[in-house]
Structure of CBM6 domain-containing protein:
Amino acid sequence: MIRRGIFLHPPILPSAVFKLTLPVAGPVTLPPFKATYEAEASSSVLAGGASISACSTCSGGADVGYVGNGGTLTINNISAPADGVYTVLVGYANGDSSPRSADISFNGSTPVTVSFPPTGGWNTISTLSVTGTFRSGTANALIFSNPSGWAPDIDGIGAPAAQ
Ligand SMILES: [Ca+2]
């Protein structure tokens, strides 16, 4: 409303007025994991017995099993915008009742051993994050192994997130 050049502001309401409470109808279902880089991609290298398994609930409809006990999975062509430390989300399945572990190496560096809790089934995907160093460009690789036991099935990984 304008009277003789004086603008009358609407009343400023306390911010509390704008709080919204959204109704929740039941348990919240998270969207399924969607890999940026599929473990089963043709650019991956599977060795030592690691193999692709069909998995209807997996990102891309498949994952890579028989990683560990000599089997290795290398996910190649991972893009990073700059040299630096990145966190990578790993989608995996562990149908065992106890954790499985995998040694994860960024570009062949000394691997970190990561414990993957059970997911409730081999077609149930969970995620966890690993952190390591990538270089600028698309020549990065993430290598999964376990010399003395089975690693989880690996569905894929998300895009590296700079730290
Ligand atoms: Ca997959």
